[in-house]
Design goal:
With about 170 residues, the chain is mainly alpha-helical. It has seven helices and two strands. The protein has a domain of about 100 residues. A two-stranded antiparallel sheet has the order 1-2. A hairpin with a 5-residue loop joins β1 and β2.
Length: about 170
C-alpha cells in the first residue's frame, strides 16, 4: 500500500494488504471504529444569539458533527465556531468593499498614508481561531483520527516518551 488514502481512513481490504501485519490491522480498525461509540449532540434548539450566518453554519455542521463523538458538553464550542464563522463572513464583505490596504489622502488629493485594513488582520485572526476550534471538534481528518486512538496506544506513547528522555 502506498501512503495513506486521501480521506485518511483505511478500508479493511487496504489494511489487510499492509506490511505491518494482523496486529496493526486490528489496532487500526479498532481505532477507526471508536469514532462512532459516543452519544450524539442534539440539533435543536438552534442558539438564538447566533446571527444569520451563524445559524446557517449551525444548520450545516451539526448534522455532520452528529457522525462524530461530539457530546452536548461541546455545544458552547460549536456555538463559538458558528459565531466566528459569521464574523469571518462579515469581515470578508468589508475586505471586498475596502480592500486589504487602506489609502489615506489629504485635502489636496495627495496620498498621505497607507495601512493594512484592520478588518484584514481581524479576518486572519478569526480564521486561526476557526481552525483551532475545528481541530478540537474533530472537523479535520487528522483530528478525527486522533480522537480514535485506543487507550493502550496512548499509554505506550507515554512510556516511550519517558524512556527516550522526553
Amino acid at each position: 500500500m502506498r501512503g495513506k488514502p486521501s480521506r485518511g481512513l483505511y478500508s479493511k481490504e487496504q489494511l489487510k494488504k499492509h506490511k505491518k501485519g494482523k496486529e496493526y490491522v486490528a489496532k487500526e480498525l479498532a481505532r477507526q471504529e471508536t469514532l462512532y461509540d459516543y452519544e450524539k449532540i442534539q440539533i435543536k434548539p438552534i442558539p438564538s444569539h447566533l446571527d444569520y450566518y451563524g445559524k446557517q453554519e449551525w444548520k450545516r455542521v451539526i448534522p455532520l458533527l452528529q457522525q462524530l463523538p461530539i457530546a452536548e458538553l461541546d455545544r458552547q464550542l460549536i456555538e463559538s465556531y458558528c459565531q466566528l464563522h459569521a464574523y469571518k463572513r462579515r469581515l470578508q464583505k468589508d475586505i471586498e468593499k475596502f480592500g486589504t490596504v487602506l489609502t489615506f489622502y489629504n485635502d489636496d488629493g495627495e496620498m498621505t498614508n497607507r495601512r493594512t485594513n484592520p478588518a484584514y488582520n481581524q479576518f486572519l485572526q478569526t480564521v486561526k481561531e476557526i481552525r483551532m476550534i475545528a481541530n478540537q471538534l474533530g472537523m479535520t481528518i487528522n483530528s478525527r483520527l486522533e480522537l480514535a486512538v485506543p487507550d493502550e496506544d496512548k499509554e505506550e506513547d507515554e512510556v516511550l516518551k519517558l524512556l527516550k528522555g522526553g
